[in-house]
């Protein structure tokens, strides 16, 4: 399968993240799956006119593009002209190239939340008129329109995340190459269910603090980040705490909130990112699928039952009280 | 008779780039550098809660993400009047150094060296070795270097949650305290990377390479073993054959904001080196101006405290989205070469004394930083004190201002933040490549790359490898440039 990768209104961070893939041989894994890189801006030899030759052949349908990977948002401004990103050397807006290429592509993938929804570039006044391939924030549409289907009959596959996890990209590419990816492999927002059926909360190392609502109040505190620090791990779809980032990390393990970067609209939460919005002292954003009354009741109960160890550690940056040693056998 | 050649898209640079060349008599008469992507982060930031900058600015750039975080944290720190505990400085230095060294490493193996494996160089004595080692995607170096990079960046998994786009760097230090056993793991990761570098990249101890103090010493070191015994020796053989020391001279004015501070003293000094002085001098950030005369932006020349970013795609005479920063009216160059010049490394000084800034000097100083910073990182890990605080805390002022000047892999990065009524009233950013790839200013003086390209041999747009070497020797980051 031919893979073509282009970058537009993003930061290149999803490529940088991909290069951290937990593989001893990233390029070999792609080759082994029958994936041939036609061109990638950070990796390929060809430059300048050689690139335009490759892109023109793809856009005309002469060179088949099986996997069209777009990283970064699509910039429609100013005034719909797309001039906020003219592809270097081509004299044409990148959005024109993407429209042409997507018309022929067998599968079109949005790599990261910018290409999926518009992402960070759409924050504030959205100065560049950014959008995603098939979403404009939470609204279907985007550059290609809600009705777009790639040649294989699928909508844009949204490998969302800011950045996206290298595993999410590699596993989606390999599943496509192996013929093991179809409409049922995507959730309602066209994200691969391989990672989007999980919540960031699952496997969070701070779960004991969550259970007792023993909360962090300041950066570097060990406690749960939900009550005060803006964490949305109980609502955000991703498996960040079930598979590690960079060997063993995740946002919550790094001491800071999940900002739900896989979700459309995450860039404008309506409150400071690192501060939980509350009404009458109760966080507005409660865990997915949980009735509010039960959450409030359980939180009140668990707070009053918090062990001293959990309470004191929650407000420290290292363990100040270690677990009691108990005999665990039935004696 | 002159003609105009447009080169682009440039690959193996971060982001998109277009270079227009006026060619006369087989040489570049004038170069015009266009940063063709505008996103508008400075507009996005206005009106936000100041703390939101820590989420937004890393996403300017996926390869300089931590340095953007560090600059924002420093600007907020100044506004909040915080002092960072020693652990916080050590942790922040380690995360920034991990990114900077990974960037140097990525530049050498993935971005820069593959150009010497192109068929245009077939027949050169070193070509077969270069092709086997550095061919894009297929060479043995990429296959070996990527896992080493991945393992090294596991430092960020421990210290920062993930890379890129961490939120662990805080105005008061780090949100991620390190335990005693994690110190051991960090130590192990650093030593593993050191072994890889010493075995493959240098073929010698880091300290031995760091101690090379002249071009002659470097040549003698290179000649002591076969060119194929290490990647640096192979590069030096290529550089000698292609005379990369005589390629790509820009202004020879070098700026560094000072890198990796600890208790008020940076590991690499802060200052300005100019040929007239022949020594590092102080500079005043108040002397920085951004000239908009050739950018698709409205407004007049201003200091970033008062800077504006208002796009105007139809502006006459403009050819890029990049502003033109100047220091006391001068074009300056930043990056690893500038840092080592300002810090007084004898090898950098000797190379510049002989030929000025060059492709060789820029690439070599990046590798030199690998040899100088990794041992410092090993010491920083040992200095971490579990149980002592990693982060100081304080309140944001409703009115205030802060400036954050840090050294990213590619050079000096500045953030200028003003806060009014508890919100961001102004946020201006000057990135390293904004300095290096700036367009002409109102006086018509070209930017650093534009100067470095002038005079290069050029007869065929499809055989522009010399231009490619010069462009990539700056390790440009185009997404940071305009932001």
How would you characterize this protein structure?
The complex is a heterodimer of chains A (331) and B (483). Chain A is of the alpha/beta class. Chain A folds into 2 domains: 194 residues, Rossmann fold, CATH 3.40.50.700; 122 residues, Irregular (Cytochrome-c3 Hydrogenase, Chain A, domain 2), CATH 4.10.480.10. Chain A is 24% helix and 12% strand. A 5-stranded parallel sheet of chain A has the order 2-1-3-7-11, with helices on both faces. In chain A, strands 4-8 form a two-stranded antiparallel sheet. In chain A, strands 5-6 form a two-stranded antiparallel sheet. In chain A, a hairpin with a 2-residue loop joins β9 and β10. With 483 residues, chain B is of the alpha+beta class. Chain B has a single domain, classed as Orthogonal Bundle (Cytochrome-c3 Hydrogenase, chain B), CATH 1.10.645. Chain B has a 3-stranded antiparallel sheet. The longest helix of chain B has 27 residues. The two termini of chain B are 37 Å apart. Chains A and B meet through α1, α2, α3 and β5 of A and α1, α2, α4, α6 and α7 of B.
What are the defining features of this structure?
heterodimer; A: 331 residues; alpha/beta; Rossmann fold; Cytochrome-c3 Hydrogenase, Chain A, domain 2; 2 domains; 5-stranded parallel sheet; 24% helix; elongated; B: 483 residues; alpha+beta; Cytochrome-c3 Hydrogenase, chain B; 3-stranded antiparallel sheet; 18 helices; 17 strands; globular
Top-tier CATH class of the largest domain in chain A: Alpha Beta
CATH topology of chain B: Cytochrome-c3 Hydrogenase, chain B
Strand content of chain A: 5-15%
Helix/sheet category of chain B: alpha+beta
What class would the helix/strand composition of chain A place it in? alpha/beta
β content of chain B, as a range? 15-25%
Output the CATH homologous superfamily of the largest domain in chain A: NADH:ubiquinone oxidoreductase-like, 20kDa subunit
**CATH architecture assignment name of the largest domain in chain A:** 3-Layer(aba) Sandwich
Total number of distinct structural domains of chain A = 2
Mean pLDDT of chain B: 97
Determine the oligomeric state from the structure.
heterodimer
Number of strands of chain B: 17
InterPro entries (chain B): Ni-dep_hyd_lsu (IPR001501), Ni-dep_hyd_lsu_Ni_BS (IPR018194), NiFe-Hase_large (IPR029014), NiFe/NiFeSe_hydrgnase_LSU (IPR050867)
Binding site for Fe cation (chain B): 64, 480
Family (chain B): Belongs to the [NiFe]/[NiFeSe] hydrogenase large subunit family.
Protein name (chain B): HupV protein
């Amino acid at each position: 399968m031919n893979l073509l990768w282009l970058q537009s209104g993003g930061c290149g961070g999803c490529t940088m993240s991909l290069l951290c893939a937990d593989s001893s041989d990233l390029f070999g894994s792609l080759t082994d799956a029958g994936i041939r890189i036609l061109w990638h801006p950070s990796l390929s030899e060809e430059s300048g006119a050689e690139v335009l030759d490759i892109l023109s052949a793809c856009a005309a349908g002469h060179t088949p593009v099986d996997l069209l990977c777009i990283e970064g948002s699509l910039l429609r401004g100013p005034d719909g002209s797309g001039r906020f990103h003219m592809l270097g050397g081509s004299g044409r807006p990148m959005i024109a190239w993407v429209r042409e290429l997507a018309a022929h592509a067998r599968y079109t993938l949005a790599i990261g939340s910018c290409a999926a929804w518009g992402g960070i570039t759409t924050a504030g006044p959205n100065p560049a008129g950014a959008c995603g391939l098939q979403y404009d924030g939470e609204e279907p549409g985007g550059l290609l329109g809600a009705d777009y289907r790639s040649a294989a009959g699928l909508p844009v596959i949204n490998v969302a995340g800011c950045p996206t996890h290298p595993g999410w990209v590699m596993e989606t590419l390999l599943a496509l190459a192996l013929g093991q990816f179809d409409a049922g492999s995507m959730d309602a927002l066209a994200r691969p269910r391989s990672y989007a059926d999980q919540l960031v909360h699952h496997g969070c190392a701070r779960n004991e603090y969550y259970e007792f609502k023993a909360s962090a109040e300041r950066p570097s505190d060990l406690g749960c980040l939900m009550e005060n620090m803006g964490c949305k791990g109980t609502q955000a779809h991703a498996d960040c705490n079930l598979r590690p980032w960079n060997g063993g990390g995740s946002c919550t393990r790094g001491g800071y909130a999940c900002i739900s970067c896989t979700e459309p609209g995450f860039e404008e939460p309506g409150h400071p990112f690192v501060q939980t919005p509350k009404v009458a002292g109760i966080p507005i954003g409660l865990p997915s699928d949980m009735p509010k009354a039960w959450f409030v009741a359980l939180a009140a109960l668990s707070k009053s039952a918090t062990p001293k160890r959990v309470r004191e550690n929650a407000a420290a940056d290292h363990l100040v009280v270690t677990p009691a040693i108990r005999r665990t056998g039935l004696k | 008779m002159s003609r105009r050649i447009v080169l682009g898209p440039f690959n193996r640079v971060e982001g998109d780039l277009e270079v227009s060349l006026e060619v006369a008599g087989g040489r570049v008469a004038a170069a015009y550098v266009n940063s063709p992507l505008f996103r508008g982060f400075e507009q996005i930031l206005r009106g936000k809660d100041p703390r939101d900058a820590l989420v937004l600015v890393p996403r300017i750039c996926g390869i300089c993400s931590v340095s953007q975080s560090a600059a924002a944290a420093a600007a907020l720190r100044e506004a909040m009047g915080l002092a960072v505990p020693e652990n916080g400085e050590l942790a922040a230095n380690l995360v920034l150094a991990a990114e900077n060294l990974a960037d140097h490493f990525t530049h050498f193996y993935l971005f820069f060296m593959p150009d010497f494996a192109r068929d245009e160089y077939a027949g050169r004595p070193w070509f077969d070795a270069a092709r086997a080692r550095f061919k894009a995607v297929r060479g043995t170096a990429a296959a070996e270097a990527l896992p080493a990079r991945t393992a090294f960046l596991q430092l960020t998994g421990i210290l920062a949650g993930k890379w890129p786009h961490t939120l662990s760097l805080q105005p008061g230090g780090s949100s991620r305290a390190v335990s005693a056993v994690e110190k051991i793991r960090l130590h192990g990761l650093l030593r593993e990377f050191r072994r890889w570098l010493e075995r493959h990249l240098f073929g010698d101890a880091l300290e031995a390479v760091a101690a090379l103090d002249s071009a002659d010493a470097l040549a003698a070191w290179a000649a002591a073993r076969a060119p194929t015994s290490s990647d640096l020796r192979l590069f030096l053989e290529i550089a000698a054959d292609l005379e990369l020391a005589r390629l790509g001279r820009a202004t020879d004015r070098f700026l560094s904001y000072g890198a990796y501070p600890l208790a008020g003293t940076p590991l690499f000094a802060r200052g300005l080196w100019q040929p007239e002085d022949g020594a590092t001098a102080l500079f005043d950030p108040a002397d920085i101006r951004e000239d908009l005369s050739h950018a698709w932006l409205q407004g007049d020349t201003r200091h970033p405290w008062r800077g504006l970013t208002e796009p105007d795609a139809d502006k006459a005479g403009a050819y890029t989205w990049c502003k033109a920063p100047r220091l006391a009216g001068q074009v300056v160059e930043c990056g690893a070469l500038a840092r080592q010049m300002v810090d007084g490394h004898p090898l950098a000084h000797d190379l510049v004394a002989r030929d000025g800034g060059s492709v060789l000097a820029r690439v070599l100083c990046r590798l030199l930083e690998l040899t100088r910073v990794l041992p410092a990182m090993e010491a920083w890990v040992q200095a971490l004190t579990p149980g002592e605080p990693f982060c100081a805390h304080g309140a944001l002022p409703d009115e205030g201002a802060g400036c954050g000047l840090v050294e990213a892999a590619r050079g000096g990065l500045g953030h200028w933040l003003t806060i009014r009524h508890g919100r961001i009233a102004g946020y201006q950013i000057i990135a390293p490549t904004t300095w290096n790839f700036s367009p002409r200013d109102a006086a018509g003086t070209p930017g650093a790359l534009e100067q470095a390209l002038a005079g290069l041999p050029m007869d065929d747009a499809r055989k522009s490898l010399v231009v490619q070497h010069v462009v990539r020797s700056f390790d440009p980051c185009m997404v940071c440039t305009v932001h």
